[in-house]
Amino acid sequence: MKMLHFAHALLPDGWADDVRIAVDERGWIGGVERGAAKAGCEAHDGIAVPGLPNLHSHAFQRGMAGLAERRGSGEDNFWGWRQVMYRFLARLDPDDVAAIAAQAYVEMVESGFTAVTEFHYLHHAPDGGRYADLAEMAVAIARAAAESGIGLTHLPVFYRFCGFGGGAPEPGQRRFVSEPDEFARIVAASRHALRDVADAVVGIAPHSIRAVTRDTLADVVADAGAAPIHIHIAEQRREVEECLAWSGRRSVDWLLDEVPVDGRWCLVHATHVSPGEVARIAASGAVAGLCPITEANLGDGIYPLPPFLAQGGRFGIGSDSNVRIDAAEELRLLEYGQRLRDETRNVTEAAQGRSTGRSLYDRALAGGTPATGRAVGALAPGRRCDIVLLDPDHPALVGRGGDHWLDGWIFAGDGRLVRSVWIGGRAVVTEGRHVARERVGRRFAATMRRLLAA
Ligand SMILES: [Zn+2]
Fold it and tell me: At the fourth CATH level, which superfamily is domain 52-372?
């Protein structure tokens, strides 16, 4: 067993000093002791917190970050951005995806994310032809995860239709589209592809209500077992309006009426929800998958967090389009969106005198963890040893303690505040740099020069 010792650590029951964490040979936490001596340990003078799970990523979109920031003709919105995204992904081969995903994952890890949930819909060749291995693109994601060390929950996406009620897919969607029986083979092949990625989980993701019908949705959900099920929902007002016109019901109401949604589910975005839908999501046990940076970038809207939390709702955060990758910034922007809308401060934490940073972090761990289907999210025996070490001498943290460390990181910090990261007990970031950053960065640069010159 490896022994790590930290001057300070956030444990499930609060902050503790002189914490010794035993890591077993599989990279899981075997034991946690507070007030422990450093003897026989690898000792670190810093602030150890559980690594944050990222519950929603499309890794390849890191390669188009910043390329859709020019005013389009007429109304410029999510649907115009989607056309830019379709043009970009039409060029990517499996090696390109592996190179871009590795860069995205290295950046995630350096910012404090130790697990990622990859919502993976790029299954087929550019012309829609099938790769010999249906999981060819999942292999690319697995390679990137292994190289970065990030914990992986892989969600093959079921995408069959375009528009509510089963419209024919557009040419730009041909890399995503499968019938349910082929989708089952993609899931099986993905499990095989990920067999060597430590503790990886394979779930499923019906893309959105727009991309399925009631029958095909029921079909793929029936085979999910205990694994996570994620779906994009109610991200855009237009989507909710179209769902209403088609079915007479709002998107979340339709989903909750038609399939048994429970704690396995993550409703990604769920931005445009009625008070009744907020209550129904909270009661279902599903996690709301909030992606504040991407939702801001795409002009989606702001999630109604206060009533959701008041009814016991769970949320986690995702980096989605990866236009920027920063764990603390996602939490900051989540809170700031609420403040801007409500013209008030400290919205996430309702109890007087309690820390907003701590509340954001605790909630993102508690919601993000079930959404990954993995034993992460706490420094406790039986969990994976995923640790982020904050620099106690950083200007945003120096002289502070306890929850003020999290408030300092989230509201006043920058990207240099994460000093070290362990994932599955292995040190993947030291002195603020990922151990594979140079190699991954060189390959990403070569890939992007070629793609953008074409
Ligand atoms: Zn998404």
Answer: Metal-dependent hydrolases (3.20.20.140)
